[in-house]
Hints:
The chain is of the alpha/beta class. Among the domains are: 286-380, Phosphorylase Kinase, domain 1 (2-Layer Sandwich), CATH 3.30.200; 422-447 and 455-621, Transferase(Phosphotransferase), domain 1 (Orthogonal Bundle), CATH 1.10.510.10. It is built from 16 helices and 22 strands. It has helices spanning 2-7, 11-22, 31-41, 239-254, 259-268, 295-301, 343-355, 387-392, 403-422, 453-458, 477-482, 487-503, 521-530, 548-561, 572-579, 584-606, and strands at residues 43-44, 66-68, 74-78, 85-87, 100-102, 107-109, 124-126, 148-150, 157-158, 172-174, 179-184, 196-197, 203-206, 286-287, 290-292, 310-314, 317-323, 329-335, 367-371, 374-380, 438-440, 446-448. The protein has a seven-stranded mixed sheet with strand order 2-3-5-7-8-10-12, with no helix packed on it.
Amino acid sequence: MEILDHMCSWNLWSMLCLLLLFSFPKTFANTEGDALYALKSSLKDPQNVLQSWDNTLVNPCTWFHVTCDSNNLVIRVDLGNANLSGTLVSQLGQLRNLQYLEMYSNTLTGTIPSELGNLTNLVSLDLYLNHLNGSIPDSLGNLLKLRFLRLNNNSLFGSIPDSLTNIQTLQVLDLSTNNLSGPVPSNGSFSLFTPISFADNAGLCGNGTTKPCPGDPPFSPPPPYTPPSPPKSNGRTTSIAAIAGGVAAGAALLLAVPSITLAWHRRRRPQAHFFDVPAEEDPEVHLGQLKRFSLRELQVATDNFSNKNILGRGGFGKVYKGRLADGSLVAVKRLKEERSAGGELQFQTEVEMISMAVHRNLLRLRGFCMTPTERLLVYPYMVNGSVASCLRERSENVPPLHWSKRGRIALGSARGLSYLHDHCDPKIIHRDVKAANILLDEDFEAVVGDFGLAKLMDYKDTHVTTAVRGTIGHIAPEYLSTGKSSEKTDVFGYGIMLLELITGQRAFDLARLANDDDVLLLDWVKNLLKERKLDILVDPDLRSNFNDIEVEALIQVALLCTQASPLERPKMSEVVRMLEGDGLAERWEEWQKVEVVRIQTDRETREAPSMYIDSTYNLAAIELSQPR
């Protein structure tokens, strides 16, 4: 019917945008995409964490575990603890803008490519806990911006290159538990202010070890260092200040100890694979109701961010299930973003602002962790997972999500979004409303998760993969075409989520092409309504156990929320009232009248032949409980 045809009219433009975003011609390829695909080709990936690394999608910024800056240049590759095996490739040296290469805790073999020395913007190189062999490339001395070099727990052999002493920016150097040999470079560049470890390399001698080299003169400690006074911060200590104070205090203490005692202490203490300062001097200090966790605390809680504890992956990072020392279960979101100097205070400010959004239908932020290389958010663990997992990932012995629960989920999530839009100052726009981000507590109460993450990740324009942030099938047409979002983009996403609740289907599913159906859920539903094929619209898992009137109401709300024009969509506060039984009939009737006038005007403008127009689209006239 023409009204639905008109509602679908924006899809030609939206699909064109999708093609532009996700199907660049190969001639537009860049060396970064080719380099990363070469890495994928050299790796074995039993858990398919690299599934999105498609060489037909030239822009690697659309791939999971890859972070780009605002110019679509790759700045971070995050493949730590991903159960990968295989070898590193020389093409990695083509990622000239790379700042973080995280491939720790896998089973990588082979050598460290000397081409990594071309990555002159690199800040962190973490290859520890692998099976790498060969020597440490002398070219790593070219990485003059490097702050973290962790190659420990491999099978590296040979000497430590003298060139590493050229790197004056090192904050962490860990070469422990390898097969290195020969003298440790001793020109003073490996200062005691840097957490260093050469332990468990039986062949090493000299500086920082317990074994003197032949012909070594007696050790003379460097002159004492007087640390600067820490800046005042109104009772709060930022990460940078904490690091400066902690390192300076540690340095003053260490300088009073002979080198042999220092080396003995380093050998005896347990080897740590994460270096950070304590979260706070008093572990009971909180920012309001928000606790600041230490990195080690969350490392222990998640079993060192083990893959077996991953609850989900997304554009913002991975989520891990964890158990704190007090026994409580938490969900730890490890954000994937660029780190920049001075960003810590801004991040902390934004986290505190988000923590002030308190509503029964919003996921409560319990705490956070912030180090020079990590941003983590800690939430309560939701025992019933997400709406998406309940709809499409349940085991056979778990009953389907009951219709009455789906109605409560629709209303609860609408209330949570309405609070973000109308009661937060400044308002919070979610920008990725979907079934996977609506979580369910022990009573199946809807809890909107991941709100505010778009704001957190945008405060310095990082982790930008395209002009648009969101999930295909949920993205509003105006956001897709212009990149401009508002609370009405959330309304559109909410409407799609309602259709997920009703149908049990994914918002974007290529599998529907096998039946000559639309890949976008919205188009699929509209065509079923137009063709009156409602016997396959409602989730078949419900086995006809639903309320016809309530299904009709939810479909009407979903169609109102997914109108092409954002101005014509209701506000979330209006959606709440309609779901509570106030004003839906009037709004639906008004919308139908407007659509009739618009279609008539469009037809006259196009001078189209006169056609009969059905002046109403009455869902109530369609039988929703046909035999299935």
